[in-house]
Amino acid sequence: MGKHKNKFYLMSTLTKRIFSAITLILILVICFFFWKQKGLLFFGFLFILIGVLEYYSLNIKPLSSSIFLFSWFLLFFLSSLGFILYKNSLSFPLWLLFFVFFSSGVLWISQGKMDNKTLWTLLANAGWGGVYLSLLPASCLLLLTFPHPHWFFLLLLTTFLGDTLAYFTGRFWGKTPLMPEVSPSKTLEGSLGGLIGSLVGALCYIPFLHFSWDKAFLLGIGVAFLGQSGDLVASLLKRQAHVKDSGNLLPGHGGILDRIDGVLFAGPFVFVVANYLQSH
After folding, report:
1. Are 193 and 170 in contact (CB under 8 A)?
2. Which residues contact 139 (CB under 8 A, 6 or more apart)?
3. Is the dihedral of CA 237, 128, 70, 137 positive or negative?
């Protein structure tokens, strides 16, 4: 009886994951078909906005439910993404300046309303969120400012294909725990499956971006390592917040952060590689 229940649960979850994945792919295709990179940028901004709200609910709201702090938090993320995507030489210094003002604002808004330990935890969570949901997604979206969106699609393909193969390999052959204290369900076998998936994704893009096999191989390894690290960091954040998923917007996956955690970590690496290869 238990085996039948587990099998039914697995099929039900798998059906939901496939449905969510197909829906997201269709939205991406429609955005790109009608509005090209601008459509994808808009979709990306919307995704990040929802991710910011999920992060706030998990890591900020339990410590302080101040509406003023929420407004300040939201303003920082929206403004900082604009700074970075502006692609000016002052973009990063402006982000740093705004980040300092943001952290100072969190301190002044919250002082006197909680003990020092809670205040420091709030500052740390807000500070990490500032990097996690502004600098990291900006590096992903900057790939859409290239003449062609190939590098952006490469990032998605290598990350999601790695994530998909990791999921199935871990489900059917996973036996050796990877980091049980962070994510009990992840296995070494699943991680190796994810590596293979990312490698296959990178190799598939050789005809479009005209880089060599060895560069594609190194790119796949880098994306696999960073994508899986991003997944584990997201698991750690959820474990600290005592929740299974960051949200429930995507059936079978959870929230937006559950879907893009690997993309956020792999994005800066792909952006640096893309700039290097474009200039050589």
Report:
1. yes
2. 267, 268, 271
3. negative
3-state secondary structure the chain: CHHHHHHHHHHHHHHHHHHHHHHHHHHHHHHHHHHHHHHHHHHHHHHHHHHHHHHHHHHHCCCCCCHHHHHHHHHHHHHHHHHHHCCCCCHHHHHHHHHHHHHHHHHHHHCCCCCHHHHHHHHHHHHHHHHHHHHHHHHHHHHHHCCCCHHHHHHHHHHHHHHHHHHHHHHHHCCCEEECCCEEEEEHHHHHHHHHHHHHHHHHCHHHHCCCHHHHHHHHHHHHHHHHHHHHHHHHHHHHHCCCCCCCCECCCECHHHHHHHHHHHHHHHHHHHHHHHCC
Which tokens sit at 187? 């296995």
Are 129 and 76 in contact, with CB atoms under 8 Å apart? no
Q: 96 vs 3, 93, 270, CA distance in Å?
A: 53, 5, 22
Residue 142's CB: how many other CB atoms inside 10 A?
A: 21
Separation between Cα atoms, residue 79 and residue 133, nearest integer Å: 12
For 184-209, what is the mean pLDDT? Answer: 95
Q: What pLDDT does residue 7 have? A: 52
Query: Please, is 112 exposed, middle or buried when counting C-beta atoms within 10 Å of its C-beta (0-12, 13-18, 19+)?
Result: exposed
Give the rounded distance of the alpha carbon of 110 from its chain centre. 28
- The pLDDT assigned to 45 comes to 92
- pLDDT tens across 41-51, in order? 999 999 999 99
What is the pTM (predicted TM-score) of this model? 0.92
- Which residues does residue 183 pair with via DSSP β-bridges, in sequence order? 179
The fraction of the chain above a pLDDT of 70, given in percent, is: 95
